[in-house]
Amino acid sequence: MELTAESHSVSLNDGSSIPLIGLGTYGNPHTTPKGTTYEAVKVAIEAGYRHIDGAMIYFNEHEVGQAIREKIADGTVKREDIFYCGKLWNTFHPPELVRPALEKTLNTMQLDYVDLYIVEMPTAFKPGDTFHPRDENGKYIYHETDLCATWEALEACKDAGMVKSLGVSNFNKRQLELILKKPGLKHKPVSNQVECHPYFTQPKLLEYCRQNEIVIVGYSPLGTSRDPMWYGVHMNPSHLLEDELLASIGKKYNKTAAQVALRFNVQRRVVVIPKSFNPDRIKDNFQIFDFSLSQAEMKAIEGLNKNIRFVELLMWSDHPEYPFHDDY
After folding, report:
1. What is residue 308's predicted lDDT score, i.e. its pLDDT?
2. What residues have CB less than 8 Å from 294, skipping those under 6 apart?
3. Which end of the chain is more exposed for a tag (fewer CB within 10 A), N or C?
4. pLDDT per residue over 90-128, tens digit each?
5. 113 part of the active site
6. What is the per-residue pLDDT for 235?
7. DSSP 3-state assignment of 24?
8. Cα–Cα distance measured from residue 169 to residue 194, given in angstroms and rounded to the nearest whole number
9. Confidence band for 223, pLDDT divided at 50, 70 and 90
10. CB neighbours (10 Å) of residue 178?
11. Are 326 and 174 in contact (CB under 8 A)?
């Protein structure tokens, strides 16, 4: 299948499909000016994006929903053209809280359904009014839930028509197998959203997911601009975009290192969701369908893999379900 700006979706195991590039919408809620996400989503849809990745925990789903609705109202797109992914946060893992969490997203966005709803982390936190519950010593308060019971509650939401497809995020092989081998499984996860870029190519997890018809959605495909508390100290994430190989390949095609990094994953049928609030960068990130990397170039970029995870989430590394202790 030839990838074009108009047609670059891959099939999911439930019969739906997902565009290979989407706009990530995470922004620090304390420092991102009001309206920033709204403007970014509008620019993205006008530039050709049809896949928007968001989450309740980003505290901007109202802006995302408003932008989507306005672009539908002005005739730019129809609802069925847009693919929206929402996420179930850690404090909503108990089965009875799953549907209310999804309803909250639908109400906030004023949409009838989301296209994909994923378990954001396998790590449950204590349910309640605060999204990051801590004790008096500042330690996170965890919660023990059965991921299979959470999944069954999600299956009920799909059966009720509130969501088209179900997936997970930051799950390792063992945690994926918990769901895949669950007795009475009705709906397989269609996707696993994990960090994926030329310095962290995820070969083992990618192969495992391919064998099980699960699409990898790569977050931080250009490194990460998140607060340093999110990532480890191995290396500054911005180094990825200064990589000499990516730059030299880019020069050949008159493309940036970032565009080469995105194209690399897209050619591997790994979905990319680069986050940007900069209108020019949003447009640039989408310009990856007018060139194609050779097999030799793909192999050379694969050789950049350093197995470096930028987003380590070490503040939760003592959680019993912390996913990154395992090899993959």
Report:
1. 86
2. none
3. N
4. 999 999 999 999 999 999 999 999 999 999 999 999 999
5. no
6. 57
7. strand
8. 6
9. confident
10. 16
11. yes
CATH architecture of the domain 9-323 equals Alpha-Beta Barrel (3.20)
How many residues belong to the chain?
A: 328
Which residues, in sequence order, are CB contacts of 96 under 8 Å at separation 6+? 153
DSSP letter string over 112-165?
Answer: S-EEEEEES-S--B--SS-SS-B-TTS-B-B----HHHHHHHHHHHHHTTSEEE
Proportion of the chain in helix, strand, coil states, percent, rounded to 5:
40, 15, 45
Q: What is the pLDDT of residues 28-72, one digit of tens each?
A: 999 999 999 999 999 999 999 999 999 999 999 999 999 999 999
Report d(CA 95, CA 75) in Å as an integer: 38
- pLDDT value at 237 more than 80: no
Which residue stretches of 181-234 are H helix? 203-211
Say which residues have a Cβ less than 8 Å from residue 128's Cβ, sequence separation at least 6: 91
pTM: 0.96
Closest of 21, 53, 45 to residue 263, by C-alpha: 21
Query: Residue 230 and residue 315: Cα distance in Å, rounded?
Result: 8
Query: Do 266 and 292 meet the contact criterion of CB atoms below 8 Å apart?
Result: no
Q: Rounded to 5 degrees, what angle do the CA atoms 46, 50, 51 make? A: 130
Residue in 26, 38, 58, 231 annotated catalytic: 58
Is pLDDT at 232 greater than 60 in this prediction? no
Q: For the chain, where are the E strands, in sequence order?
A: 9-11, 17-19, 23-24, 51-53, 83-88, 114-119, 163-169, 191-195, 215-219, 271-272
